Amino acid sequence: MRKKIECFLIILSCCSLCFSQQVISTAGCHSVNGTIQLSWTIGEPVISTLSNGSYILTQGMHQGLLLIDAIEEIELSGLEISAFPNPANEFVNLKVTNELTSQPDEMWKEFSFQLYDMNGKVIMQNQIVSTETVIKMDNYAPSTYFLKVSIDKKSVKTFKIIKQ
Predict the structure, then answer these.
(1) CB 3.0–4.6 Å: which of 94, 111, 138, 154 could bond 90 by disulfide?
(2) Sequence ranges of the domains in the chain
(3) Could you tell me which CATH class the domain 80-163 is placed in?
């Protein structure tokens, strides 16, 4: 009898390890309205969040809080890059000015941009061919996006764009 109980416990332990990183959920969502955030998952009975001011420890599959600490930028003299309006509704203007604007053909062949969603998926990419580029956002859902500007395939500046 004891061997049967030990075998049952070993099998139960192995099964719990196989399924330890999964949650079976029927629904879930994350919403932001001004300064209030609401994240929820139905089907996850036990979660816990502890904080001491500097660190946050969350137990559970649904991690509602995403913090981006830093986006590395490369400083180039004479280069100014801006993206506006932010938050955006229908479009974002990307403005690039440089000392080399008097030589447009030489300057623009190296410039490009990529638009990423929150999952890191590239949803749009294109060459920058003039000092102002209009990026249409009306086909995308309200969310947070990242607009990365590159020169010769090296990231120069990244913007956090909020689509309303």
Answers:
(1) 138
(2) 2-59, 80-163
(3) mainly beta
